[in-house]
Batch of 4 targets.
Target 1
Amino acid sequence: MSQEEPLAGFAIAVVREDGKWRCDSMGSDALRELDSAITELRKIRSTGAVFGMLAVDDEFFLLLRPSPGGMSLLLSDAAAALDYDIAADALDLLRVDPPEEDDDELWPEGSLDILADLGLPAPELQVITGEVDLYPDQQLQMIAQRCGFADQFTALLDRIQQ
């Protein structure tokens, strides 16, 4: 079995507990395997909100949020499933067929209201995912800003990218 090249990007677990936000790095497998990201998020014990933010290879992002009924998720670009296993796994979990090879259109797939209770309504998240001129880390920065944890997000990214 050959060792796969690591994917560029980052995976961050975001926790809001007692009115305070915390951002922590997730393991490197979280960028490659959806199951790894889900497992890692489910291990986090908190009375508040817990969700994951994954920026993959400067191409797309994933938002993952465990809930008692399963896993809510949002894939910023459904076409990423043609090139990335983690995106294909996300569409599979959503029970959505991947787009055709010749489809050039970009669209998000999943729960646009995934962060609505944290201050980011679905229409605003739709606008953020539609900003195709931005890189995924920039889109996630906008999400962090809107939800109120931009400082924690930026501080962790600065540590990760050193």
Target 2
Amino acid sequence: MSTHPNPRFAGYRYPAEVISTAVWLYFLFPLSLRMVEEMLAARGITVSYEMVRQWGLKFGRDIANTLRRRAPRRGDKWHLDEVVLAIGGKRQYLWRAVDKDGFVLDELVQSRRDAKAAKRLLRKLLKRQGVEPRVMVTDKLKSYAAAKRETMPGVEHRQHKGLNNRAENSHQPTRRRERQMKRFKSARQVQLFLSIHDPIANLFNLRRDHRSVADYRTARAQAFETWAEVAGARLAA
């Protein structure tokens, strides 16, 4: 293992491959900082969990932003859903939008579950995606219909609990992380974590059940190549 010449890692004690691997492990899998520390220790790499946290904030954000810019145009069918989070003893709502293939389009943590909150999510989605969807699928929460009438009046809106499993299932990684971290400490922490986690998860969302073994392994190899290019270093062997 040798230090990568990428100037992004200049001045760091640890090789770029170690930093890249720590960030990948923490944001892609439901692991605590201490778990990542132990997994690196098993490879003979001694690093503190606090260092892993700092790497995640510095490098994870850069990697996520680059992946988001490079991401292909997503599907024109949006699934929207919201889930309750208990943060600091208060009820918060995580609003999320995914496309028909389960790729996360955006997320927003808010204290409300009304039309104003739904409108904020739709406006953020339109700004980031740059185009309206063909179809918007939600549950029967009336806030979605009210927000859509004002922001996307021409878009078809389907409201049915059974049609929105795609969005509901997308909350599962957040729930696993919430349990691992013994609840989130603040809305800002959730928003920051998900803003890094979701682009990385999208890169490795390979839809294994829709591919042959050979196609899956090819797609996985391509995802690792993209990671190495964006992160500036390959994963540690």
Target 3
Amino acid sequence: MNLTLRIWRQSGPQDKGRMVTYQVDDVSPDMSFLEMLDVLNERLILAGEEPVAFDHDCREGICGMCGLMINGDAHGPQRGTTACQLHMRQFSDGETIDIEPWRARAFPVIKDLVVNRNAFDKIIAAGGYVTAPTGSAPEAHSVPVAKADADAAFESAACIGCGACVAACPNGSGMLFTAAKVTQLSLLPQGQPERYTRVIGMVDAHDEAGFGGCTNAGECTVVCPKGIPLTTIGRLNRDYLTATTRHAETPGT
């Protein structure tokens, strides 16, 4: 395939940035999207030009590093797929593809397609620790967990923290990510001691980081590569309401 790429180029956080057009020829439909960018970068380097900076790591759809807006869609047109697992067969010969970084106030651009997602780390840090006895691992059957709770907790734990939910949200909200990290613990016995202090701390960190408020637009769940449902945010809201009510009734708890 022969493709026209319109890529966001920004030399640094203070640079205004612009879209730059590149032509890429002889693209195999079996290439991944990131492999196609590698081909472009090899040609740019050989031509003495600055390669396009983009985040990547595992290239197996599990690390959450690859964050690209492709033709206005977070991770591209194929649902349930990260950009590194997106193949060029999803595009047509002669097509023009727009590639941009995540667009959110909480994710400032570092360079080109790379953004700073440290705000997610602050939310995780605000969750604190989980109380657990030290020593050898307990017998697995000694802590019974209902099948429905185990499945829902695993569903939330599948979040890879890529930030697609933030990029797709019209408000720039990170509530789906926050909800996933809150509920994966709140549904399990090990997460109960800090359950309500955790949800308050993580929601406060979310707001302080500059993310927008959630209005249940649902765009986050559409682009989530792991298919985390909107009901996850409902669980967070329920826990947050309970936590703030308890705090109001018993200050200091």
Target 4
Amino acid sequence: MLIAGFPAGSFQTNCYVVAPAAGAECVVVDPGQNAEEGLDELIREHRLKPVAVVLTHGHIDHMWSVGPVCGAREIPAWIHPDDRVLLSDPGRGFGAMSKQLFGGLEFSEPDDVRELTDGAVLELAGLELVVDHRPGHTGGSVTFRLDDEHVLFSGDLLFRDSIGRTDLPGGDHQAMLGSLAKTLTLPDETVVLPGHGPQTTIGRERASNPFLKDLEHGAPGPNRGL
């Protein structure tokens, strides 16, 4: 198994490639702002052939480069239907802040967009990615599991020592708590590859994440990640 990544753009959003091995087909996870150059470097270094892009959610810092990445390689993008509108209108994910942050920028869907469903198993690049709908950060937030490898791409659901924000349009704190509770049922050894910051494990976060200790009491989450 090959998993490599880098923080893209000013948001430092983790973009990943995942493949069975070097020299194989691969899947791109969350190509954020100005991710093309970093992706090209990883693809050349490991002799990979991208066959799809999968998005943990529709916020602009996770999908900024999805159009050019998919267009250059004629590959599909996968996203949950509740977040699909953000591909062409990312400002809807930020409300009053959108003009200040993204005024004048124009986005459009890739030519081939496919919709994710809860519990689906995507068979891509010789991999089996299990899709779990985990709303809270956005209505269409998902995670991707590689069960054979005990790996979770958590997007902006769960971070090392933190959880995702729920104060933006489409955020839902109670839904976030429910999504976190479901995610914490994964084995302790599951490696969590988040949308921002360093990797962690389910066991570590269950034991020490301050925002999970009072999960059943509805403790508020911090403003981490877009």
